[in-house]
Write a structure and sequence with these properties.
Layout lengths: L6 H13 L13 H15 L17 H7 L22 H18 L16 H18 L3
Helix pairs in contact: 1-4, 1-5, 2-4, 2-5
Length: 148
């Protein structure tokens, strides 16, 4: 399973982020590219404890379902509900938002799988290893959404 803790997998995501354009059309979903970048920034900030989010809720916040969804199941196209906090930030300047995304991805990776991570608002208490896989899967999903 790919993870942001693997430098090669992370570098591949960063190269794809660099290929993203602000007017790139989505292949599915309702977000435009600038909104998607802000959405990812919010999710990455929450994992660092820099964005306050509500408590975990719903069936995906309980083991073993959370592990199964993170590690084995494909991410659904346009069907998943995001925590409202992950949609609250509006795009500012494209280059700045993209630089922020790159920085947040690197900062999350630098924490490593052994760090103490906050609960996910969707998946509840998960391991650092699962956070690395979740971040990779989430970023990859949205980059594929925009064809990069």
């Amino acid at each position: 399973m790919r993870t942001i803790f693997d430098p090669g997998a992370r570098d591949a995501l960063l190269r794809r982020i660099d290929a993203l354009e602000p007017d790139q059309p989505a292949l599915w979903g309702r977000m435009n590219a600038p909104q998607m970048v802000c959405h990812l920034n919010c999710a990455l900030r929450a994992a660092l404890g820099e964005l306050e989010v509500g408590p975990p809720r719903g069936p995906l916040s309980r083991p073993p379902l959370n592990w199964l969804v993170i590690h084995l199941l494909p991410w659904p196209k346009g069907k998943a509900e995001s925590p409202p906090e992950f949609l609250a930030t509006q795009p500012a300047a494209w280059q700045e938002d993209v630089r922020t995304l790159r920085s947040l991805l690197e900062r999350n990776a630098a924490r490593g799988p052994g760090a103490t991570w906050p609960p996910s608002p969707v998946f509840g208490r998960i391991s650092g290893r699962s956070w690395g896989v979740l971040h990779h899967k989430h970023v990859d999903h949205h980059l594929r959404q925009f064809g990069v």
